[in-house]
Amino acid sequence: MTTTETGTARPAGRPRSEKAEKAIIEATLDLIGEGMGISELSIEAIASRAGVGKTTIYRRWSNKEDLVADALASLKAPIPPLAGVSVRDDLVALLDTMMRESGQSRTRCVMNIAMSESDRHPELFAKFMKQAVEPRTAAMTDVLERGIRTGELRADLEPRLANGALAGTMMWHIKRAKDDGDLPADLPARIVDNLLRGMAG
User: Fold this and answer.
1) Which residues 6+ apart lie within 8 Å of 68 measured at CB?
2) pLDDT tens per residue, range 134-164
3) What does pTM read for this prediction?
4) In order of start, what are the domains of the chain with their CATH numbers?
5) Quick one: which of 192, 188, 193, 189 has its CA closest to 102?
6) Do the Cβ atoms of 183 and 104 come closer than 8 Å?
């Protein structure tokens, strides 16, 4: 570690290049999307595709599994700010984000290939779930629990089951989409409106 003039500690060596990091992430996703399984994927192949040295990768990621987890997480869009005015509108916003991030053919291809190896790389996928999936599940659960408190949803509604019904229905449509434009823009609203008929208070 070195110390700046203001007394702030910073890591020794050159600052990491955002451009290089992006190239590494994109190279990782490209190789997986082309059919290379996680077990076959190597730091050497990623470095070659990204046009960087292996040391550039190891300065940011200690191993291949951490890099792949971050690459997969990069496919997830940020959780949208929720207005909090109505449960219905917030659920539509969350499903819309889910549709946009997973509705692209490249994303579907990469995730399908990667998830097929989840049993062989449990630590990798545990990290991916924690940083990319669990925050989205928690956001939707918070909205559902708020709806129960405000009376917008049934008092006996089970948030975990409702969460699965909403996200699961969206994933059903996403997995069956053939092209990037195959999912109608109003699909999130239609899913929420149909399911809310059984959830509403």
Assistant:
1) 28, 32, 38, 41, 114, 121, 124
2) 999 999 999 999 999 999 999 999 999 999 9
3) 0.80
4) 13-71 (1.10.10.60), 87-199 (1.10.357.10)
5) 188
6) no
